[in-house]
Amino acid sequence: MRFKISSRQALFITASILFLAAIFYFLSGNSILSNQAPLTENNTDAPKKEKINSDLPVRLKIPKINVDSAIEYVGLTDQGAMDVPSGPVDVAWFNLGPRPGESGSAVISGHYGWKNNIPAVFDNLYKLSMGDRVYVEYEKGIMTTFVVRELKSYDQNENAVDVFTSDDGIPHLNLVTCEGVWDKIKKSYSNRLVVFTDIE
Fold it and tell me: Where in 63-163 does DSSP place strands (E)?
């Protein structure tokens, strides 16, 4: 279920996130030399859909496929892949990227096809379609809504940088799971399914 990320790709993703954050920081009128608000008419120059929330995400809710799961926090494995949730019922937020609701592409993964036919959180992720809603709940009960834009399938060795980065200044949430054929030797599915969503 892991997305393989080479050390070079990981460095690129991290650098891209920091670069985009720096650009947004300065374009929004902030300055390390001043605590004043940006001097714009009605302070309306920031991206319209920016909803930065200092709380950590705690639950992912997708009513259409009956998902209401706790969110774990993961980084990279020793092999350079995005880590995965510890079990079949929780999801995992890639905490080396932005939080859901911050500018950029937040990524949450979940299992599909758990052993012994035990239901897994993203078994039905493929049933989502454009316009469906996804909700992220934060520590203080605040909820952020995302809307499905598209579903895309990747080969497990395909470059997936676009899953982790974006440059439009808008918050995105990308949901990742497995699909395809199970390889008993590699103990992995052949493909990865990504649901791309945009903040509402």
Answer: 67-74, 91-94, 104-110, 133-138, 143-155
For the cut 50, the answer to whether the pLDDT of residue 103 exceeds it is yes
Encoding tokens for residue 191? 């493909």
Phi first, then psi, for residue 43 (nearest 5°) are: 50, 50
The reply to whether CATH 3.30.9.10 applies to domain 7-199 is no
Query: Contact 160/81 with Cβ under 8 angstroms?
Result: no
Distance CA 198, CA 66 (A): 20
Name residue 60's beta-bridge partners.
Answer: 69, 136
Q: Which two tokens stand for residue 181?
A: 């054929």
192 DSSP β-pair partners? 154, 178
17 conformational bin, left if phi > 0, alpha if psi -120 to 50, beta if neither: alpha
- Identify the residue whose tokens are 């009960």: 141
Using alpha carbons, select from 142, 144, 136, 146 the residue that is nearest to residue 70.
Answer: 136
What tokens appear for 18 in the block? Answer: 């920091």
Predicted confidence (pLDDT) at residue 58 exceeds the cutoff of 70? yes
Which whole-number Å values give the CA distances from 36 to 21, 40, 49, 53, in the listed order? Answer: 19, 11, 22, 20
37-49: pLDDT as tens digits: 333 334 444 444 5
Q: What ranges do the domains of the chain cover?
A: 7-199
The model scores a pTM over 0.90:
no
